[in-house]
Amino acid sequence: MTQVRLRNITKRFGATVAVADVTLDIASGEFICLLGASGCGKTTLLRILGGFARPDSGEVLANGKRVDTLPPNQREVGFVFQSYALFPTKTVAENIGFGLAIRRRSKDEIARRVAELCDLTRLRGMEGRYPHELSGGQQQRVALARALAPEPSILLLDEPLSALDAKIRAHLRTEIRGIVDRLKVTTVYVTHDQEEALAIADRVAVMDAGRILQVDSPMNVYLHPAQRFVADFVGINNALPGRPLGAASVEVNGFALDTTVPEPLRGATSILVCIRPEHVILAAPGAAPPGGTGTLAAVTFAGATVRVRLAVPGGHELLADVPTHEWQALGIAQGDTVNWRVRPGTPVLLPGGNG
Ligand SMILES: Nc1ncnc2c1ncn2[C@@H]1O[C@H](COP(=O)(O)OP(=O)(O)O)[C@@H](O)[C@H]1O
Ligand SMILES: [Mg+2]
User: Which of 3.40.50.1110, 3.40.50.300, 3.40.630.40, 3.60.130.10 would CATH assign to domain 2-230?
Assistant: First the structure.
C-alpha cells in the first residue's frame, strides 16, 4: 500500500533548482534510499518529506491526504540528522525520551519506552551517560532511538553514518535495517555511498541535479542502470562507443563482443558499451585471446586488485581491475601493449555513443 506520495515536487533556492519535478511513491513498510552525490538535492527532498521545508510546487501526500502545509510535529515523522544533534546536557535516557516528554506522556510510559528502545539499540546500561561520554556509533544509536521513541509512521535518516569510520558504518547500517524491520516503520535513508545504498535498501532512487534518474531494486540498479550517470554511479566506469551486430553481439574498439543487444538498440548505428573494470580481462603478450589491444598507461595497486588504465585505439581509456594474484602471473608492466577482452554478457548497452 502506498503510504507517501510525492507529486512533481520542485524546490528552488534563488537560481539553484535543488529539487526538480520529483515524483515518487513510497510503500508502507518500505526501506528506500536516496542515493546521489553531494549537492544533488537529497537533504532538501528529505526536509520536504519531513515538513522542515515547503516545496515551491507539487504535492506531498501521506495515506492519501495532502500534508505539505503541515509542520513536522503533525506528520508522525522521525528524523535522524547527519550530525547527531543530541542535547549535550541531557542524558541518554532524557535524549531518547525527549519527544515523549514534549508530548506530555506519563513518566511511567516514557520510562517503559526508553527501556524498550535501549534494548533495541543496545544502549542498556548507558541510560545515565551524557553524549560526550559516548562513541560516535553509540551517539548515532541514541539519535536513532530518539527518533523512533514517539512511534513515527515514517523514519527519515540523512547520511546518518557519514561521520563514522568504515567498519562501524558497515556494522551499524545492518543494525539500523534490522531495527526498522522489527518496528515495520517506513524508512527513507539518504546516502552518497552506493555500496551502503545497495546493501541496505529495498529500492534505490538515484538522484542527480535535483532529479530522480532511476528508482529500482538494488540488483536492478546495479545490473541494469538506465542511464550513463547511473551506470557510472554504480561502478561501471568504462563507456566506449560501439555498434550493434544483430541481437547477440556488438562491435567495440575493432572487435566483436558477445552480449545480448536489447531490442530497441538493435537498429542503432551507434551505442554506448558500458563495462565494469572487473569484467575486463587482460592477456599476457603472446597468449592473446581475440579482443582489443591497449597500452598500459597507469598501474595502481589496490590490495585485492590492481587497477590498470589502458589507452585503447580511438583515443579512449579503459579501466581494468585485475585480481592481484592474476596480475602477478601476467608479468606485464606500465608501457607494455596487451590484449584485452570483456567477459561475455556483462556489458550494459545504452543509447548514445558517437553521436
Ligand atoms: N537553504 C539553502 N539556501 C540556498 N541554497 C541551498 C539551501 N539548501 C540547499 N541549497 C542548495 O540546493 C542544492 C541541493 O542541496 P542539498 O539538498 O543539501 O543536497 P545534498 O543533500 O544532496 O547534498 C545545493 O546546490 C545546495 O547548495
Ligand atoms: Mg545532504
Answer: 3.40.50.300
